[in-house]
Amino acid sequence: MSRLLKKEEEVDVEVLNEDQQKINRFSILVDKYFRLKEEIEKLSGRIETYKTAADELMIADGDVYFVVGQSFVQDEDAEELLEEAIGDLQKKFEGKNDEIAEVKSEMASLKSILKGKFGASIGLDFDE
């Protein structure tokens, strides 16, 4: 939410090229943050779907087939492949969470530098 600055909050500071690059970098990081959050949500959904399938596979009676591409794999192999797929997705999920932590850290650093120079004159807030 934007607001007008009070006279005492206004800062008359020249914006250098270096400052503009930091502002641009912050903007890029905000975009990356939201893309990563979206990817994490998708991965989380896929992990839950695979876990549900693994649970169903354990309680299923008779022949169960697992679709891999255009092939059907029988029960013994299906459980193994499903657990492997869950493990791979969890590694990706953890990697995306690590990336988000790095992005947030860099954003905090840039925000601190820019707020130090421009004070309330610069809006670097975003809704997570």
TrEMBL record:
<protein>
    <submittedName>
        <fullName>Multi-domain containing protein</fullName>
    </submittedName>
</protein>
<dbReference type="Pfam" id="PF01920">
    <property type="entry name" value="Prefoldin_2"/>
</dbReference>
<dbReference type="InterPro" id="IPR016661">
    <property type="entry name" value="PFDN4"/>
</dbReference>
<comment type="similarity">
    <text>Belongs to the prefoldin subunit beta family.</text>
</comment>
<dbReference type="InterPro" id="IPR002777">
    <property type="entry name" value="PFD_beta-like"/>
</dbReference>
<keyword id="KW-0143">Chaperone</keyword>
